[in-house]
Every structure is written in structure tokens, then in C-alpha cells.
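Subject: complex prediction, re-run

Hi both,

The earlier run crashed halfway through, so I resubmitted it with identical inputs.
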Amino acid sequence: MASNQSVSQSAGTVSPLLARFDAPFIFRSGKSIPGFELMYEAYGTLNADKSNAVLVCHALNASHHVAGIDANGDEGWWDNMVGPGKPLDTNRFYVIGVNNLGGCFGSTGPKHANPQTGKPYGADFPVVTVEDWVNAQALLADQLGIDCFAAVMGGSLGAMQALQWAIAYPKRVRHALVIASTPKLSAQNIAFNEVARQAIITDPEFHGGHYYEHGVVPANGLRVARMVGHITYLSDDVMGERFGRELRDGLQYGYGAEFQIESYLRHQGEKFSGYFDANTYLLITKALDYFDPAAAHDGNLAKALAPARGVGFLVVSFTTDWRFSPAKSREIVDALTANRTNVSYAEIDAPHGHDEFLLTDPRYHALARTYYERVWNSIGSRT
Amino acid sequence: MTTLSNSKMRPDFTIIAGMVRPGSWVLDLGCGDGSLLTFLKGARGVKGYGVEIDDTNVCAALEAGVNVLQSNLERGLRSFGDATFDMVILSQTLQAMHNIEGLMHEITRVGKEAIVSFPNLRYAPNFKQLEAGRMPVSDVLPYQWHDTPNVHLCTLLDFEDLCEQVGLVVAERIALAKGKPVTDNPNVNGELAIYRVKKINSALSGLPQE
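This time it finished cleanly. Structure:
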């Protein structure tokens, strides 16, 4: 296998795969579903001893489509990170992207029929947690015969899943790459999520979460939810630089999209409401709010991370990320160092805020590439 | 934060290795490209972390296989608990720091012991350059006065005064010139000083056994 391609390419045309699980799945809440499906994509080749698998976990609005070009011609959401010759090099690693349980891109979620009623689950779909997602991903790994991932990687909410993997399945993951994350949401983070939820729930088309049966979607609520979210992904400086107080067509003394930033947010909201499911959005914001592995240990994060002692970590934060600030990543790092866990930490001085984790920052990508070199060297067999 | 970060093998490395007990849990502050930690891993089987501020060095240290944490030492070491490390190392970093007194307290708080190495400004050839009217420039002090990161140069005597002032005792002192130990009048003949220090109260509870 080529070990160090200098030219990076796209993963090419990719098709999703569907995995079926027939045993009941019990959520952290105690609720259960009789069975489920997970939509996933895979890039690269799984080696003979299945030691080169890397799981990439998605954040709020993304999917299993991590890299390459799908049937719609859309590029994967982390295509700059994952592919042949990319920092996470699919010439070496077998990379898996999964649409999480409760999602709206093919995995079992609120849009799907509840076998007990024959109608879509809607708001009756059990509230999912990061723990549930990771447990479901572990079942997929079982089905693929992957005992141990070379690495689990994610940004933001995706990084929480990487962290949870290291806590819940420390023997099944060698390395965790935790980018732009936090060990728990702050009151402010939860507040933003609640505004998003209220926008959706109070939309007249929401119908208590059973809007599918009415043939409508709470698009207005979803738009506003996305607009609020989007504000938290960007830094004040970048927003100012990109939009400033620029007007589209002078002052109109009305409530149209006069400022460029208004137009931009409306466009983002519009685009998002066209493809994302409102119930899934609600579920994912709850998963974010609930994530707090230290809670079961009197708030002691080091205790929560104690099982992860044998896992290697790369933690990365971005200086202008005010959603999950570097101080939050440092809490993770401090807990890991208190446990004498192998961890490296980088704080990238970059302008774009939370969204930086999706951008092609050369320092950040160099770190990821270097760390994957270490991951590669930690794999016994390289067949 | 490191001054000579990219020279692979500095003369103080072997001396520092001699002061570190095998298998120690160490913190290398201003670890540069990780070469000292890599050397100590091989020579003494140590483990631990390096702290570094510079982006390029962080990536280089990561590449060297070191656990590197990007942080500004001037912000202190609050993230580490008391006596977390067997040894804290400040290898040719002290002279580039601003809050030296605070850092001396911090390294002996998080470390049971600390090793501090620094260039000696009173080293005779440095002194000669000063007498000739110029700021000293040498292998150990490779910078021009206007672009040096070394904002706090001192002599062995100065450093020992500071140790006393902040409640530290010197457990060991080795001075080097041209890479070789100097015993005769080290404050004048030593180019590079390497100290092993600890808090006075911890010193009373017994000296380290080598």
C-alpha cells in the first residue's frame, strides 16, 4: 500500500451502505426500539487484521457522507480532511462515516415508521444521547468485524462521540482525535439550543412533532433554529470582516433582508430547512445538552476519563471559537494529564471561530496528518 | 519560548539526564521540538509531557512522538496539581520568561524537584565581549541584542540569590564550558549552568537517592 502520497485526491464517487440490526436497542432513557438501520459510507480498504479502521463522527447537521462525491454530486462534509493523501489518508486507513441513530439521512430516526403504530415515530422517537450513538456505532463495528478502531475522530459534537468511545470502549479504540469540543455544554450553549428548539416547537406546522402525517414541515422554525446556530459557529471578527454593515440595496426602512448578514443567515436557514428534519434537530440538540460524562462522578472529569488511560489523544481547539472555547478543551486535557494519559494538545490561533474545524487551516491539518502518522505507527500490522 | 529549540543535542542534555531518575514522570517546559524529552526517554526511560507555545515546534514535537501541550508558560501551570511530576525541567527557557519568580514557585509546586539550565552572562568570554563594548554573542547566546528572546539573563550567583529568596535549595549544580564540566570558579568559567532545585521544606524530608 502506498504509504505517503504527496498528492491528495478526492475519495471519488461514493455510495452509502445500510446496516440492519434486528435486536432491540435500549436507549439511555430506558426507552427502546425493536431494531434499527444505520446508513454509513466507507473509504479505503480494511486490512486483513482489521486494524486500520477509523471512525469519523458527525456533528449537528452533517451525515455519513464524510468524503468523496455522492450520487447528488455533493462533496463530503470533511472532504478536505479525509481522502487519498489527505491528513486522514484513505490510502492507509479504512474510514467509516455513520449517520447517527435518530438522524435524517437514512439511519432510523423520527421520519421512519414506528413498527408498533405503522406511522412515523415523529416526536415519539426516543431522545438520543451521545452514549446511545456510540453504542449503536459499536454494534456497527461488531457487524463489520472491527474489534478495535485505530482512531475515532470528530469535531464539536462529533468529538464528544470520540471522547465517549474512549470512556465506554477503551479497549476498542487506540486513539481519539477530539477537535473543537467540550466536556459539557455551558448554560449559554444550552440557552442557544433552547432558542432553536422553541423556534421549531412553536412553529404552527410542528403539530407536536407529528407533522409528517399532516404533509407539512415546520420549515420556519427550522430556519430560525439554523440561523441561531450559525451565529454561534462564526467569530464576531469573521462575521464583521465578511459582512460588516454592508447593505444589499441601501436602507429600505422595512423588514426585508437589508444587511448582507441578514441575507446570509436567511439563505443558510432556507437551505437547511430544505434538507434537514426538524425532529432530528430537536433530538441532536438534546444529545448535546445531556452530554456530561463527569456528572456520574460528582463532576470529576478525570474520574470519568479514567477508563480511557490506555487511549492516545489529540485535542485541538481554536482561539476564536466562543461556542466551545479553548478553555473547554483544556478541561479535557487537564483531566487527561491528571490521569497520566498520552495526550497532545494544540491551540490554533485562527480567526474563524467554531467552524474552523471544517476549514483547511494548514497548521491544523499538519497536526492531524502528523498525529495520523503516529496512529499508523501504532498499528501492529500494515497489510 | 525555547531559545535553541532546534539543535538536536544540546550540551546540557546529558547533564540533565544524569539528574533525572530512571522512569521519572517529567514535565519539560519550553520543550521545543521535543528533542530533550526524546533523549530522556531513550536515556532514562522517562515519560511525561512537554509544554510549548510555538506552532511549528508543537508539530515537530508531535512528530517526534512526544506528548506536547500547547500553552503559554507565562500563564502559569495552574492546570497541574501539586507534586504531580517527579521532575520539572526548564532547559534554557528561564532567561526568556518574564515572570521568573512566579515560574520558580510554580515549577517547584507541580514538581517534587526541578532542573533549571540557563546561559551564564558572567562567563569570561561573554564578559570580554562586553568589555570590548558589545553584547555577547556565542553558541549559547546566538542572538543579536535587538532580536533576542532572552529578556532575563543572569549569572550563577544571581540565580542562587533568587533560589534563596523564593525558598528553594540547590540540590545539585553543574556548570559547563564548551560542553565540559567546570569546577574552578563556575560563576566566571561556566558558560551554561544546570541546577537541580527543590523547596526547602521538601529538602528537609530527605535528599533524592540516585
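Chain B is about 30% helix and 25% strand.

- K.
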